[in-house]
């Protein structure tokens, strides 16, 4: 009958509309998934400026370290030449309770900008604390400590600009060093090891600061 035909036609039209709607949804989902998200966001200008100033200061510290070492470490055999390191000196690292600096890795999805900047801060605080203990036993570390203090100021500005929320771990290890400096030899070795490790950490800082300047988070469209 005409009524049945109309119902059949209406059902076909409804099915067609439903199919078209589903097709549109599918095509839209495909386009959204495949379309580029757009260029990764640039680091804030304040962050880049603070990172550049931090890098300049780290380069200054690296230039000054040989002179600081020569002025403070007078014990024969303790030099900044890595080839002169002995097993005994490595044992003294443990004996004096001098901790290793936080490890700085290449930026990635697993080692984020937050982690990198936080470890920079933790490392700077570590050496600021160690030099503070050592400066109570000998002179010649004042300017280096001032540079480290300024470096921490710039790294903190990086944290604020990048909205890094994670806090640096408290560096209680400096108290261990203070209680183990029994004589002049321990003080000399402590200064030598601290300056040697600081130099290595500064090289890592330079690499990380250079990488940060050009780092762009990988967009979802590239996965």
From TrEMBL:
<feature type="transmembrane region" description="Helical">
    <location>
        <begin position="12"/>
        <end position="32"/>
    </location>
</feature>
<dbReference type="GO" id="GO:0045639">
    <property type="term" value="P:positive regulation of myeloid cell differentiation"/>
</dbReference>
<keyword id="KW-0472">Membrane</keyword>
<dbReference type="InterPro" id="IPR030474">
    <property type="entry name" value="IL-6/GCSF/MGF"/>
</dbReference>
<dbReference type="GO" id="GO:0006955">
    <property type="term" value="P:immune response"/>
</dbReference>
<protein>
    <recommendedName>
        <fullName>Granulocyte colony-stimulating factor</fullName>
    </recommendedName>
</protein>
<dbReference type="InterPro" id="IPR040117">
    <property type="entry name" value="GCSF/MGF"/>
</dbReference>
<dbReference type="GO" id="GO:0005576">
    <property type="term" value="C:extracellular region"/>
</dbReference>
<dbReference type="InterPro" id="IPR009079">
    <property type="entry name" value="4_helix_cytokine-like_core"/>
</dbReference>
<dbReference type="GO" id="GO:0005125">
    <property type="term" value="F:cytokine activity"/>
</dbReference>
<keyword id="KW-1133">Transmembrane helix</keyword>
<keyword id="KW-0812">Transmembrane</keyword>
<comment type="similarity">
    <text>Belongs to the IL-6 superfamily.</text>
</comment>
